[in-house]
Design goal:
mainly alpha; two-stranded antiparallel sheet
Length: 497
């Protein structure tokens, strides 16, 4: 069990764990306002881990370790690489914000972010139901603490309590579903579960019930209707840097365990879970877009936008299996992976702009706060506009191609119901464009309140990173082929292993 390949499969995860503990100890002797040693060590750790995961992904090797409990494959390694980068970028954007709000009296922001990322890594690499749950709990417990990190802020504390209660409920759903899967198949190994279902003479009712609980748990982590209740309150109530930590990289983990459990483990039950995903995606697109129109708070608007965006991810996931055949799997799951990666990229720009525009005593979290921003800060206005246009799905930005690839995967099935879903998704996107364009209108055409000016005092490296981040949305929109191919090959590698 403890062979060399087992260790190789988890080297990046092991490094992350060791460094998180080292940084925790180092921080005890750090005194500065900005906790520079802790911050620097964290970013170096994330850079090294991301580089290791990128190297693993490029090699394309599939490694099973620890008695097949963990797997290192191209899809998982790319997602872990992107998650590490997203976490590092978030901390760069949020350092000044956290300092101004007394969140850096200790180094908990950095260490908890690393432990949350470790939970993400464990979830992505899991090939065992127990490992899936352990990764999920490590991520969620760290996230609860992060949301409540601003101890003296009533709204943040309230958001943490709501998150904890609903998160515990969702974890219970998932655990109950996983335990019924184990009871029905007699194994915790995801590949063996698939083999057991293929060899079973029929599908007992308990498996369908297990599937319902598993899908409900996954839906909560993705934040789709009707399990989206926590998203607006947590996004709004949490400090903005934590909102980005919760709403960015964890979406990659949620996508990964959806693929692991539904595609790798429960593929014989595809007909059943695809129907569930249809309902969840339609509900998410409808509720997310319509509710976002009514919001005046920018963070709540982006929260409901997330619900709608995850509806698109589900559209990609539900079209991969046709008549028990996965011929459309590479296109469908590849498009879903492309969508979730580009969504995280765009979310980093949207919330990063809010973080850099906020300062001590001023939370730039209402749409009206952006009035006349173009007069004083044209750079931030342009970058945030690019993010809004991309989320709306306007060409030539990457969000357009992400939506197009998902719609293409639906239409390519030739099934009337899926084509109708694609048309519905287009209509919902047109409705969604309204609230994204409203933000752009406010920034360019509304007059700022008399005597109010948003003072931006951020480090040059944070401003430069935001600019690069925004430029990537445009560059990947103009040349999406590379990332699309990467996602397609990663999924092909997963389906053929």
């Amino acid at each position: 069990m403890l062979d060399q390949l087992s260790w190789i499969a988890i080297y990046p995860d092991l490094l992350l764990l060791v460094m998180a503990c080292v940084i925790l100890l180092v921080d005890l002797s750090v005194q500065g306002k900005y906790r520079t040693p802790t911050y620097t060590l964290t970013l170096v750790t994330l850079a090294v881990v991301a580089a290791m995961q990128g190297y693993y992904a490029v090699t394309g090797d599939v490694i099973y370790g620890w008695g097949n409990m963990v797997v290192s494959d191209a899809m998982g390694n790319w997602l872990k690489c992107f998650a590490a980068i997203a976490t590092g970028v978030t901390l760069v954007y949020g350092r000044n914000y956290a300092t101004d709000r007394g969140m850096l009296r200790g180094g908990e922001l950095f260490t908890l972010s690393l432990f949350a990322l470790l939970g993400i890594f464990i979830m992505i690499s899991a090939n065992n139901l127990l490992i899936v749950y352990l990764g999920l709990e490590l991520l969620t417990l760290s996230s609860y603490a992060l949301v409540a990190l601003r101890r003296d802020h009533a709204m943040a504390t309230e958001a943490a309590m709501k998150y904890f209660v609903l998160g515990a409920l969702a974890s219970g759903f998932l655990l109950y579903g996983l335990s019924m899967l184990y009871g029905s198949t007699g194994t915790l190994d995801i590949n063996e579960i698939s083999a057991a279902l293929n060899n079973a003479p029929g599908i007992p009712f308990v498996l369908i019930l297990a599937l319902v609980f598993v899908v409900a748990g996954l839906a909560f982590k993705l934040g789709v209707v009707p399990f989206h209740m926590w998203i607006p309150d947590v996004y709004h109530g949490a400090p903005t840097v934590v909102t980005l930590l919760v709403g960015g990289a964890p979406k990659l983990a949620a996508f990964a365990i959806s693929i692991r459990l539904l595609v790798e483990g429960l593929l014989p039950l595809a007909f059943d879970w695809q129907q569930m995903l249809v309902v969840l995606s339609v509900g998410s697109l409808l509720v997310g877009n319509l509710a976002a129109i009514a919001q005046t708070n920018l963070k709540r608007m982006l929260a409901f936008s997330t619900v709608a965006q995850m509806g698109f991810v589900l559209l990609g996931l539900l079209s991969g299996v046709i008549d028990s055949n996965t011929f459309n799997g590479e296109l469908a799951y590849g498009s879903a992976m492309f969508y979730v990666v580009t969504y995280v990229l765009t979310t980093l720009v949207a919330f990063g702009s809010i973080l850099l525009l906020s300062h001590e005593g001023f939370e730039c979290d209402n749409i009206s706060d952006l009035a006349g921003l173009n007069h004083s800060h044209p750079l931030y206005t342009g970058i945030l506009s690019v993010a809004m246009f991309s989320l709306a799905g306007l060409p030539p930005l990457v969000g357009f191609y992400a939506k197009l690839s998902v719609l293409q995967s639906l239409v390519s099935t030739g099934i009337t119901g899926y084509v109708a879903l694609a048309i519905f998704a287009v209509v919902m996107s047109l409705i969604g464009a309204f609230y994204y364009l409203r933000v752009v209108k406010v920034m360019y055409f509304d007059e700022p309140p008399a005597g109010r000016e948003i003072a931006v005092n951020v480090p040059l490296h944070a401003r430069g990173l935001l600019t690069v981040n925004g430029a990537l949305i445009l560059v990947l929109g103009l040349m999406p082929g590379g990332l699309m191919t990467l996602c397609g090959q990663a999924i092909a590698n997963l389906l053929n292993k």
